[in-house]
Amino acid sequence: MSFSNLVDLYKLEKSNISFSHVKNRKLSFFAESLEAYRKEVQGRYDSDEHLNEVLNLLRRVFFKLTGSFKPYSEVISEELNNELLKKFFQIKNSYPELFSSLVIEIAKSFKEITETNENSMVEYLQDYINNTLKDVHKIAIVTKRALTLDEKNKFVLGLTVDNRINYFTENSFRKEINIFDEVFYIGSPNYFGEYVRTTFKGSKITFVSYDMFTNSMKPKREFEDIDNKGVYSTLYKQVVFGEPIEKEVLINIEEKELLNVAVNKFLDEQNRTVSNSSSDAIEASIVYLENDRFLFAPQDSKIRVFLPEEKSNFVKQKNFKDVEEDDYIVIRNESDTKLIAEVADHILKSKAKSYRQLQEKWKKRLRYNVEKKGINRVSQILSRKYRLKTASTVSIRNWCNENSICPTELPKLLKALKFTEDEVKEIYSKMQEIKRAHLKAGRLISSKLMNELSTEILLELGEQGYYTFTSQEFDGASFNIERVVSIDQSRYLIAPYNLMKPIEID
Predict the structure, then answer these.
(1) Is residue 107 part of a domain?
(2) Domain span including residue 416
(3) I need a surface site. Which of 84, 240, 263, 481 has the fewest CB within 10 A?
(4) Cα–Cα distance, 305 to 320 (Å, whole number)
(5) 392 within domain boundaries
């Protein structure tokens, strides 16, 4: 595609931006009750830990209701419903005054909503499309989290006009190169990222939110430190902004808090786990995925990346430090490391068993020393007495883990562990061979996966933010392709069984 043709794709004579509110009395009352509970807990109960847990649970329930296209009666799972009811009974027993003054009203409100076989957001959109967009042919509906196939099918059943509707998550819409007659963002501009304030892909763009959220947008000033008289910006030249709408229900609850709470809770659990096992944890960073999920990726790992723009070799391995926002990463839904080890053992053939026994032999001796002397003392001894430059506590934890094969200074480490000269030579030689087999296995897996994938999955990736497939090459092993939303490069010590595994905030 030529540059001029690419520019034509984004050539809009005018883009009108408007803001709409959806009203639902039951949902508004539920929101007001939650806000009253939040103020009471943070004010009179000094942010009691147990009551804060209930608040976070109520937040989850509330944003599930406002973010779904299902009838409200179908949104909350039986498990989540039972968890909330259990919390209500605990408050009744432990905080009877709070229960009688506030929580009983929340419980009644929750019951009323979850017995309602309607969805006000869906009804608003269906009514608008049926009555207003009769001549519109290209419609984009952009949601923060992906809609399920069932939600899409039920939504289309309520339409009486034949319009082409495309569904996107917020992040996939950033990569979309087409423009649309009408774009609906389900949520206010504040709910989405900065991108929605500067890039407009529709002749008409409507932000639709419930009335407990302010729905407005101000043109973003570029080069704010420069005198306006010296700046000429075309960013909003053909953009017309409609009237903003203030929220009608005064609440102060943000959804982004949910993800932060979930991540911090998980990290607290990891800290407790790691403190009980000095040699088990691995240094990893947080990778945020679509649909409010995240995973932990080892700092020194190689990650498979799906590259749909490549004509060939569209599954490649990258060092984790080279993975970027918006990359598609390929993850096995069980242990990816285990798969590589299995393929590597197949490459090693009859030698695999004896080689793995040698690998376990030196690791077992290292673990024994760590358990006996403590990881800090082992680090000091290796560094000072045996002159290892890489013997940090983090490195030692990695060496103890089964995923580490041939550390850079393995011969020095083996000598420190009192192996004989002949044993050092043998173990080092075999570990190098295992490492080569693992590298070959990684390339082989990428090559075979590439044969099972095509760019035809891009539509589902765009709509869902991820794609799941089953590999026939690897005995039905299940893989996910996940879009990277962002990466927190901070380092955390994580148990091996929690690595490269998508975690949901639920």
Answers:
(1) yes
(2) 343-434
(3) 240
(4) 10
(5) yes
